[in-house]
Amino acid sequence: MKLTVEAICTGTARPFHGVETSAIAKRPREGIVQILEEGFAPDEQADRRVHGGPEMAIHLYPLDHHEFWREQFGAINLLDEPGAFGSNLAVCGLTESDVHIGDRFRLGSALIEISQPRQPCWKIERRFEDFANSKGMVAKIVSTGRCGWYFRVLEIGHTQVGDTLERVEVGHEDWSVLETFEALIAGKASHNGLEQLANLSRLAPKLRAKAKAKLG
């Protein structure tokens, strides 16, 4: 599997709807971009309690989903931006059902690994509310599994637009990103599924702990 990198997006923390700050507005970068342990450099996250860090180093939200949201909202300009959902990495032809927890990809000279699905937060709805009636958007993400995912960085390196994102190793092939999201975020896990997720070695530690906690 080889896909062309359409855009690399990063951002800085800015005022966001009042007293909050957010770096969800990611803008395309030009030229060669470094990939370090915590992602593209430089890139910021406003609330480091829930965003950023090695287990959320690079966020990919499938460009393929933008058409779905156009059907929901109409042809709004924000959906023309590759980083509309706070995504760092933009590619076409890859969605949550196509990839697994622990899949490894070569991105430029770096090696990255899928660590977890993205859990949507209220800032996504707020980001879109200036352009459309976005109420219920987070619930729609949960019900459809259009969540995106995070990578951790195994080998630092560099990349640029036009490079390939190439899968070089399949991880936990029984657990696609979609199935993991449905189990742990949408609440559809069976007892057996939770046991598997609690011991899934390449799943982010916080989600393994979440699965364990749900077992009681």
Question: Any overview of this molecule?
Answer:
The chain is an alpha+beta fold and 216 residues long. The protein has one domain (2-172): PK beta-barrel domain-like (M1 Pyruvate Kinase, Domain 3, Beta Barrel), CATH 2.40.33.20. Helix content is 23%, strand content 25%. The protein is built from six helices and 14 strands. It has helices at residues 66-73, 122-128, 137-144, 177-184, 191-198, 205-215; strands at residues 2-4, 7-10, 14-16, 20-22, 27-28, 33-36, 39-41, 58-60, 89-90, 104-107, 110-117, 149-155, 157-159, 164-169. It is globular. It starts with a strand and ends with a helix.
Q: What value does the Rg take, in angstroms? A: 16 Å
Question: Can you give the mean pLDDT?
Answer: 93
Number of helices: 6
Which term fits the overall shape?
Answer: globular
Beta-strand proportion: 25-35%
Write the layout of secondary structure elements.
Elements (H helix, E strand, L loop, with lengths): L1 E3 L2 E4 L3 E3 L3 E3 L4 E2 L4 E4 L2 E3 L16 E3 L5 H8 L15 E2 L13 E4 L2 E8 L4 H7 L8 H8 L4 E7 L1 E3 L4 E6 L7 H8 L6 H8 L6 H11 L1
Antiparallel strand pairs: 1-14, 2-5, 2-9, 3-4, 6-7, 6-13, 8-12, 10-11, 10-14, 11-12
